[in-house]
Model the fold of this input.
Amino acid sequence: MKNQIQLSATFIFIAFFFSSCDVVEGIFKAGMGFGIFIVIAVIAVIIFIIAKLSGKK
Done:
């Protein structure tokens, strides 16, 4: 009986561990997508500012 409880506890721990890894993976994927969006937005703002400054000359 004790062996069965240990086996069950180990299985639950492994299932919980793998599901939390999926959550962390999702967070990093979302973070990477958001980071790429921010970089593109900053580059667009810089290009816009340069275009406005060079257009006045």
